[in-house]
Every structure is written in structure tokens, then in C-alpha cells.
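Help! Submission page says 'invalid entity' but I think these are all valid:
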Amino acid sequence: MASVRLESVVKKFGKVIAVNNVSLEVKDGEFFILLGPSGCGKTTTLRLIAGLEYPDSGRIYIDDKDVTFLEPKDRDVAMVFQNYALYPHMTVFQNIAFPLLLKRKKLGLTKEDIKKRVLEVARLLRIEELLHRKPGQLSGGQQQRVALARALIRRPKVWLMDEPLSNLDALLRLAMRAELKRLQKELGITTIYVTHDQAEALSMADRIAVMNKGKVIQVGTPDEVYLKPKHVFVGTFIGAPPMNVIECRIEEQDGKYLLQCPGFTREIPQEIMASKLVKTKEIILGIRPEFIEVIESPAPDTIKGKILVVEPLGSETILNININPENEETIIKVKLPKITKKFRPGETVFLKIDWSKVSIFDKTTGFLLE
Amino acid sequence: MVSLYYRVRRIRLSTIIINIVVWFIAILWLLPFIGLFMVSVRPYSEVVLQGWWTILGGHYTLNNYIQVLTNPMYDLLRGYMNSLTIAIPSTFIPLILAAMIAYGFSRFSFTAKNVLFILILLIMAVPQQTMVIPMFFMLKAMGLLNKLIGLILVHSSWGIAWIAFFMRNYFNMMPREIEEAARVDGAGWATIFFRIVLPVSLPALASAAAIQFTWVWSDFFFALMFIYSPEKMVITQKVVTIKGQFYVDWGLLSAGSILTMLVPLLVYAALQKYYLRGMVGWASGKG
């Protein structure tokens, strides 16, 4: 178990800055997830921690020991790769035992000890009956377990995982998600996990670092990044469907501040009133689809809209509503928890926004105005 | 009946044409060998009277083979031994050295890497004949002329260039993740190379081994230049001695030729499983 700290880490590949001044702190025993779209630098960050890449500047610490330029073998980390990277010519037993065999003398282990440890880990991951097979004879899920076992056997300080579930089918992925989380909590190994799947991140992480274009945009608990996104990117990247964003202007009229949005204009609600806000002219208003109520008849403080598409998803329904008759593309997505009424495309409805849940972002920087 | 109709219909015209062409080429390719084989198993008198290609009728005998192997005048067995003594190390020495060189070229960056690689390509392009005189003097200076070890060195160094080129291409296509996994697991470069990379590259190594072995085994030119004592001559040199100055026993010569071919054929047959995969490379492999 260990803590991991990155200080102003920069990694360039030619002219491309893959990791741009990233500073992070992962606590002891934490399940920490690096989340972001492909090409955002999350895998490079993980590889820097593993020692498979060296940074151009910045430092990396594991348990306060500077490991920036240490070889991977000297960092006491274990890694699970996206394609599992099992050794194809070795049996499952040999694959799992390999890290221990390499450190046999250093750890003072006998062959019997190694066998015992392999069986122990195999039992934990329920792969005892596969030990004599070769990786080519295993299913994706089984290969994944072997890769996890190989990463566990050495009892590393830090467990690094690079999208380990992305090659599994949807059902197996769900099952493995829960199992991984259980395993991590049971063993208490500090884990840094890379994924582009926001559902995976929200469901598994203790804390999430959302990355974009090589930078860390926000670090927080799943609730924090979901409910209080610090940047419009975080709001729109996380959530299914993502946060609704509407570009609006703030105008001062007779000492009052008006919020002018496509389709509606109103005085700035008390809930979001802030000094920083009124100084900014151009803003982005962000609201999650579940914080909008749909009313059938006109009511005060509502926005008129027309239903374009109804997406029933079983446990919930998503409505695509146009709020600007002049522009068909001004669409608000609303998530209804259950079907109380059957809505139809073409119907006129009224939207009541929960203003206490609204996030206001600066249009030029994209950052939250607090 | 219906299913048969569909089955017949499903065979495309292009498939038929491709099959005909392939069979035609294959038979054309094999015909000289069949002729050679027929000559080797029939008495000389029948060959002279009935021609090369008579397959049916006549007598069959292994006399030519027995003659060629046991008659001390031809001494083919010694040629066999000498060829094996040269071909085996001349296959394994360049194979292991070239694999290491290739791995270096594929995975590490170092000064003048590209220049060195171009040098390897140039060496591959140089005809053996142009190098034979300097090599002759080098071997002479080292006291390795007319010695099997000298020929082993020549073949090994000649093989390193093309095997390094071949293996580098293979390593370049090889996914790097398993090596990275090994690095994280605690392996150093030597462990990665010998315990992960080499076993995984077995198909490519087998292909290279089969080709290099065959080349060395079939070599006549270098052997002719650097070996001149009859007791040190290799099989390709020995076969030639079967042909007399005034009289050629085609039966004996054919048997000798077939015996010479036999070893590379066996090597190919033994390694077939690997070298087919090695030639296809990673393209068809599972991810």
C-alpha cells in the first residue's frame, strides 16, 4: 500500500504535449480513476507512473520516494494492460508465477512458496482449474482474471490498470466492475485505473480525475464531478445523457440582471445570483437532464418547448425538447425517472428548471463561475 | 439432389481457374524432381534405352543409393558429416546473434542507428563473388583456410545480415505490450529477450533457420573456394565427384543429388508448422 504523487509532470511526444503539467495526489488505499476521452493523456500518465515512459519535466513519488526515472521493476507497481498482455507461450500458472520467479532470490522464496502463492491468488480470482492452460485457450474474461492474478501475486504497492474491462462484453464488464471494486477494497491496494467509460468511473472510483487535452480538469469524488462540474467539459463528458448546455447572455436593465437565452429571457434567479456572474457577459448555462421537470400546462417560471423525440429506456425516459422555435437545434434533454405519462413527439410542454442545481460556466474559459 | 446442385453452383469459375493454374505450376515445378527420382531408382541401361521419364514398367533398384553411400570412391557419407558440421552451427550462430542485433534495432535508439541499418541492407545486396578474394586472404591470414571452422565463420557472418533484417521486421510488428508487462513484472532486458521475446518469436526464428540451413547446405561456391582437401569437402562438392571426366553414371549422380536434397527437405518438413506462421507474421495472429 502506498500513496502516489505527481508534481507538474509534462510529457511530450515530438511536438505533441501528451501530459501537460499534471499534478495529482493519490491517497493510500484509494481507488483512483483517470477519466477522459481518447487521446487525453490518461494512458500516458499511467505509463509515466509505471515507468514505461519518463517525463520531460516534473517529479513522480511513490510513498514519498522519488521514482521519476526509476525502471519499472524498481517501483514495486503492477499493471493490468488493455489487451491483458499475457505471455502466450506460458501456461496460466507460469504467467502468474513469472513476477515472483524474477524476484525469487530477493524475496527468499522456494518453489513451494511460489506454488502456494499462485494457488492462493488463483483461488481468489476463481481460476484454479485454468492453471495448466495457455492464454490462447481462454476466453476474454478468463484472460482478464489471469492478468489480474499476475498483477496481484507480488502484492505490489500500487496497482495500475489501463482500461482492463474494455475488451469484455457488456454483461461481463458489469460483473467484473463489481468484482474489481470488491477485490480492491478487500486487499486495500492503492489503485490507479484508466478508463474512458464514465459509468465505470462513477461506479468504481473513490475519486476521479477528469482529463482533457493532457490536462487534469477536475479531481473529485464521483458525486462532486457529477453534481458540481468545475468545467463545462466535465459536465458534458460525464452523465448519460450529458449535461444540457445553453449559451446565454447577461444584460443589465433598470438595475436588474436579465438572463437572455435562446427561447427564453428572465431575471437571474436568486439561486444562481453571484457577483462574479454579473460581471461576465457571455455564459454557458448547464443543467443535468434529471433536474428539469416537465409540466403539461403553462405555469410561472417555466420554459415553453416542443417534444421532438421520445426515447424510452425501460426504467427511464429521455425527452428531446426544442425550446427555441427559431432554431430546431436548441434541444434540451430531460430524463424522467419513470413513465408517469406517455409523451408524444410534437406535444407542447413546459419545463421547470431546478435553479439550485444549475451550473454557470464562463463562455470563454469554460470554467465554473462560483 | 437440390443440395448437390447448389454445392456445384457455389464453386466459382475463378476458383476453378486458380486451381488449374496452381496445379499446373506445381506439376511443372515437381517434374524435374520426379525425373531425377526415376533415374535414381532404375538401372542405368534402362535409363539410357527408355529415357528419363518412363515411370511405369522396367526395374526398380536401390543399388545406386547403396553404391553412392558405401563406395569409398565417392565418400558421400563424409560429405554428409562435413555438411552437417558446417550447416548446424552456421544456422544457430547467426540466428542468435542476428536476433539480438534485430531486437536492438527494433527497440532501442542509439547513435548512427539508421546508418548501421543501411549498412546491413548493403551487405545483403553484395554478391558473394565480389567478396571472395578478400575473404580468401582473411581466412588465410587467420590460418582458417581449408578448415571447417573457417567456412562456419564465413556462412555465419553472411547470414547475420539477412536474418537481422528479417527478424527486425518481425520484431517491429510484434506487439510491445507483453514486453512492457514483463518490465513491470520485474524483468530486465536480457530476461525479456531470452524468456519472452525469443520464445514468442519461434515461428520467425524457425523460418529463418530453415532458409539459412538450406542456403548453407546447398552452398557450393564458398566451399569450392575455401575447402580443398577431399576429407573436408562438403556434400555439394562430393556429389560433383560422382561425375567422371569421361563417363557419367546418371543413376549414381541422381541418387547422390536426391540424398543431398533430402536433408533440407526434412528440415523444411520438420519446421513447416512454424515457418508458415513466421512468414505470415503477426498479421493473421490473434490480438
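Support: the input was valid. A stray whitespace character was the problem, and the output above is from the cleaned input. Chain A touches chain B through 25 residues (CB under 8 Å).
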